Amino acid sequence: MRKLKLIGIGAGNPDYITLQAINALQQANVIFVTDKGEQKRELLRARREICARHMGTREYRVVEMKDPERDRAATAYGPSVVDWHERRTALYGQVLRDELSDGECGAFLVWGDPSLYDSTLRIIDQLTARAELAIDLEIIPGITSIQALAARHRIALNEIGESIHVTTGRRLNDETLGAGASVVVLLDRGCAFKGLAADDLDIYWGAYIGTPDEILISGKLGEVSGRIEELRARARSQHGWIMDTYLLRKRATSSH
User: Fold this and answer.
1) Residues 6, 121: contact at Cβ < 8 Å?
2) Most buried of 6, 98, 128, 230 (most Cβ within 10 A)?
3) Which numeric CATH code is attached to 145-250?
4) How far is the C-alpha of 142 from the C-alpha of 92, rounded, in Å?
5) Each residue's pLDDT tens digit, 205-254
6) Average pLDDT, the chain
């Protein structure tokens, strides 16, 4: 049987990788990495650097896969993602059959944590559900950008007795923010916070968290949103892509 480990490698800082992740990495014969194009070559390089740092002299192979492109212009989000996952499933199945022998251990290095807005686990689940491959799967949790954001801003994610809601930029303007609510936003392609009434919202924003290019901004949303948008545009121009996370918190109104 093939062994496969999905290893959470943290949110950008090489020190975010856990001892459990290092131990799992050192068991791997094959490291699978997804090539998402020239703009995200930095992510590919980061994975290779982690291997070089923690695999030592152990012999292993690195197998690169060209990630199928998703139709981001599609009007129907759900069907476009399903189609993308189908093409990924076919690719991953073929590569695992060709590059990972029975008895060998393979690993995917997942940015952040495999459970949070990453499709790798769903793809592997589809493969095993179809009985296409017999896989002994292990998940190694990682430090997410949410945890890193809170640590870098030195804040607790929730107010006392209040909940935390995690959503995406695409869904943000459909959410209802009650007093004391804390909403964490990931995968925001276009500053979705601009569509919110900013009078009673605080924002804790971070980009490239834990890396040398880290940017942190916090304050009243109405006062700092323009600055965030400016920094975001500059960073995207420099890197070709942006990786940011933010927490919105609605201030409780005082009664007199």
Assistant:
1) yes
2) 6
3) 3.30.950.10
4) 22
5) 999 998 889 999 999 999 999 999 999 999 989 888 888 999 999 887 64
6) 89
Residue entry with tokens 């995917």? 108
Residues in the chain, how many? 256
Each domain of the chain, given as residue ranges in start order, spans: 2-140, 145-250
Instruction: Give bridge partners of residue 203 from the DSSP assignment.
Output: 219, 248
Query: CA quadruple 66, 85, 11, 106: dihedral positive or negative?
Result: negative
Beta strand 201-207 pairing with 215-220: antiparallel
Amino acid identity, residue 199?
D
Its CATH class, for the domain covering 2-140, is alpha beta
Give one word for 12, left, alpha or beta, with left for phi > 0 and alpha for psi -120 to 50.
left
- Please give the structure tokens belonging to residue 82: 């399903």
List, for residues 117-148, the tens digit of each pLDDT value.
999 999 999 988 887 788 999 999 999 999 99
CA distances, 143 to each of 15, 140, 167, 209 (Å): 10, 10, 18, 11
